[in-house]
Write a structure and sequence with these properties.
By secondary structure, the chain is an all-beta fold. The termini are far apart. It contains no helices and 11 strands. About 35% of the residues are buried. It has strands spanning about 1-5, 10-15, 20-25, 35-40, 45-50, 55-60, 65-70, 75-80, 90-100, 115, 120-125.
C-alpha cells in the first residue's frame, strides 16, 4: 500500500505563487511516474504536470511556462512550483503515483492508482 500526503495549498491573489509538496511512503519503488492533477469547481479532474523517476517532465498547455514540477528521488517527494497564478488555477490539487511504469508518464488520471487526499488552491482576482 502506498500513502501520498500533499501539503502547501492555500489562498493567493492572481499573479502570486504557491508551492505544493507530496511525500510518498509505504510500498514504493525507485522507478515511477508521479504527477499533479486538479479538479476545478464544476469540472472534471485534469492533468497538470507529471515527472518520471528519470526526470522527464510533461505539462498541460495551460500551465506551461508558469508551473514547474520537480522531485527528490531519494525521498520520493514531488513538488509543484506554481507562479503567475490565475483564478482559473483554483481547484483541489491531487498528487498521484504509478509505481508500475516509469514511461510514459501521461496526463490522464487513469494511469495512476495511488492518490493523495488533495489540497485546496484558491486564486482570487
Amino acid at each position: 500500500q502506498v500513502q501520498l500526503v500533499e501539503s502547501g495549498g492555500g489562498s493567493v491573489q492572481a499573479g502570486g505563487s504557491l508551492r505544493l509538496s507530496c511525500s510518498a511512503s509505504g510500498n514504493t519503488y525507485s522507478r515511477y511516474c508521479m504527477g499533479w492533477f486538479r479538479r476545478a469547481p464544476g469540472k472534471e479532474r485534469e492533468g497538470v504536470a507529471t515527472i518520471s523517476s528519470t526526470g522527464v517532465r510533461n505539462y498541460a498547455d495551460s500551465v506551461k511556462g508558469r508551473f514547474t514540477v520537480s522531485q527528490d528521488n531519494g525521498k520520493i517527494t514531488l513538488y509543484l512550483q506554481m507562479d503567475s497564478l490565475k483564478p482559473d488555477d483554483t481547484g483541489i490539487y491531487y498528487c498521484a503515483a504509478d509505481f508500475t511504469q516509469w514511461w510514459p508518464c501521461e496526463l490522464r488520471d487513469g494511469q495512476y492508482n495511488n492518490w493523495g487526499q488533495g489540497t485546496q488552491v484558491t486564486v482570487s482576482s
